[in-house]
Specification:
Chain B: It comes from Orbilia blumenaviensis. Chain B: Belongs to the GST superfamily. Chain B: This is Glutathione S-transferase. Chain B: InterPro entries: Glutathione-S-Trfase_C-like, Glutathione-S-Trfase_C_sf, Glutathione_S-Trfase, Glutathione_S-Trfase_N, GST_C, Thioredoxin-like_sf. The complex is a heterodimer of chains A (236) and B (267). In chain A, strand 1, helix 1 and strand 2 form a beta-alpha-beta unit. Helix content of chain A is 54%, strand content 8%. Chain A has two domains: 85 residues, Glutaredoxin, CATH 3.40.30.10; 119 residues, Glutathione S-transferase Yfyf (Class Pi), Chain A, domain 2. Chain A is built from ten helices and four strands. In chain A, helix 4 crosses helix 5, helix 4 runs parallel beside helix 7 and helix 6 crosses helix 9. Chain A is α+β, with helices and mostly antiparallel strands and 236 residues long. In chain B, helix 1 links the parallel strand 1 and strand 2. With 267 residues, chain B is α+β, with helices and mostly antiparallel strands. In chain B, 42% of the residues are buried. Chain B has nine helices and four strands, in the order E-H-E-H-E-E-H-H-H-H-H-H-H. The chains are: A alpha+beta (236), B alpha+beta (267). Chains A and B meet through strand 4, helix 3, helix 4, helix 5 and helix 6 of A and strand 4, helix 3, helix 4, helix 5 and helix 9 of B.
Chain lengths: 236, 267
């Protein structure tokens, strides 16, 4: 793989859950990459900000992560789930971390789609309303309890679904979300899963299959390396 | 691929995510059985359905004769494949059944990856944010201005991104579609939410391209048929200024929505 030119990753080495997915997969695949730190600001005049036209030309949504791949005509790919699929399709030729056939690819897509439409946005809303330095700092008062509970319950429901699924996988002899090996479906679920226990301290004890899965993920060298390179999360 | 007659069952209701699939099936001209689920009685949480979709949400699709051998034995008939999550279902349908690329693009093209990005953009962004907007504008028992503002504003931001994309497509490629030069699952998945923007409190004044694109997609053959599955929408063409009509619809849905939240909390 020495002829592969480094892939440009636009990310942020802080407590933002989507860029680590891409870094973990790049490390798993042993791909070279150059990390470009973006400033998380809505101000479009900030040169290295995510809303500056130099970045919205790459990702019109003005969010990280995004990648540019010099090995494929400088294609820009954004949305973390699309990036995982793209890297798997182009560089994981022996299907170590991706689906080897349509059935496996579809199962992986299900769990990735559930991650991006469920785990991520609902966890994000739960944190927004429950963490003082977010909602309360902006409005000077706590959100009503029932709003916090709405999102907390939804996050708990989602991890309950994952936990039950992992128990089924366990019964089939698998430690992973899809098939019999680590795939990009697991990679997608890692970052939020690592954050959420700090905000719902009893969750892991209530969901043992999820807890065991998270411990396995944390022990992966690619995950350890990725998080060692990030700045300590200020929210923890 | 897919030489035999497809044998598909769609589990759905008249919701934005459900109609994505019925519209795609109509455009692809694929035969399928419809299994309507009654959200008001929380049918989607019953064990027979969570065996199909462990998340207990709509839509789900069963392919009774998927194009791969059973995992237990290659000589026995294939086991049915159950698929959850509208994004995964759409990607499966085009991978397996859209050989003439009516709703997709060649797998090794740049357009393929653009399509995947916009489908996931809807799954991860527009759907969840407009969904919360619906909740706090229409169903929440208490009006909470900063919750309404948060989701209406984020949804508006996302429509601004869509407006910009449609402008780019128009100016650079002379195209009226989100990706490439023809309608795709990227348009379908976004459209099914965009037609209910106003219901979520998001007025689309000033989003001229989005409004025209909504009409363009509505005119695609198969969209009209697919959007009325399993029955026509009660909100279809509703005058949202008609307070009696809106209140009637909200009251009818609020009861089961709040009851569903209560049950989830106790589960």
């Amino acid at each position: 793989m020495s002829s592969i030119k480094p892939i440009t990753v636009y990310g942020h080495l802080g407590a933002t859950p989507n860029p680590p997915k891409v870094l973990i997969l790049l490390k798993l695949l042993g791909l070279p990459y150059t990390h470009i730190e973006k400033a998380l600001t809505d101000d479009p005049t900030v040169e290295d900000g995510i809303k500056h036209t130099n970045f919205t030309a790459i990702n019109p949504n003005g969010r990280i992560p995004a990648i540019t791949d010099p090995n494929q005509n400088d294609i820009n790919v954004w949305e973390s789930a699309a990036i995982l699929q793209y890297l798997a399709e182009v560089y994981d030729k022996d299907y170590k971390f991706s689906g080897k056939d349509l059935e496996e690819r579809t199962l992986i897509n299900e769990w990735i789609a559930f991650q991006i439409s469920g785990q991520a946005p609902m966890s994000g809303q739960f944190l927004w309303f429950s963490v003082d330095r977010l909602h309360k700092a902006k409005y000077g008062e706590q959100a009503p309890e029932h709003v916090i509970i709405r999102f907390k319950n939804e996050v708990r429901r989602i991890y309950g679904v994952l936990n039950a699924h992992l128990e089924k996988q366990k019964a089939k002899g698998s430690d992973w979300i899809v098939a019999d090996r680590l795939t990009i479906a697991d990679v997608a679920w890692i970052p939020w899963a690592r954050i959420i226990p700090a905000f719902d301290p009893t969750l892991l004890e209530e969901l043992p299959a999820f807890k065991a899965w998270l411990e396995r993920m944390d022990a992966l060298p690619a995950v350890k390396e990725t998080y060692a390179e990030l700045n300590p999360p200020p929210m923890a | 691929m897919a030489a035999k007659t497809p044998n598909l069952t769609l589990y759905t209701a008249q919701t934005p995510n459900g109609t994505k699939i019925s519209i795609a099936l109509s455009i692809l001209n694929l035969p399928y059985k419809v299994h309507p689920l009654n959200l008001a009685t929380h049918e989607q949480k019953l064990p027979w359905f969570t065996a199909i979709n462990p998340n207990g949400r709509l839509p789900a699709l069963t392919d009774h004769s998927p194009p791969f051998p059973s995992s237990s034995s290659s000589s026995s008939p294939p086991e049915p494949l159950h698929i959850m999550e509208s994004g995964a279902i759409l990607l499966y349908l085009v991978s397996n059944y859209d050989t003439s690329q009516k709703l997709s693009f060649s797998k090794d093209s740049k357009e393929h990856w653009e399509m995947v990005q916009w489908v996931f953009w809807q799954n991860a962004g527009l759907g969840p944010m407009q969904g919360q907007s619906n909740h706090f504008v229409r169903y929440s028992p208490e009006k909470i201005p900063y919750a309404v503002g948060r989701y209406v504003n984020e949804s508006r931001r996302l429509y601004t991104v869509l407006e910009g994309r449609l402008k780019e497509q128009e100016e650079k490629r002379g195209s009226g579609w989100i990706v490439g030069d023809h309608v795709s699952i990227a348009d379908i998945t976004v459209w099914c939410w965009a037609i209910y923007a106003e219901w979520g409190g998001i007025g689309l004044e000033g989003f001229e391209r989005v409004r025209k694109w909504r009409e363009r997609v509505a005119g695609v053959e198969g969209v009209e048929e697919g959007r009325n599955v399993p029955e026509p929408s009660g909100l279809r063409d509703a005058d949202l200024g008609d307070e009696v009509l809106v209140r009637g619809y909200v009251e009818g849905s609020r009861k089961w929505i709040l009851e569903g939240m209560r049950r989830d909390a106790e589960a």
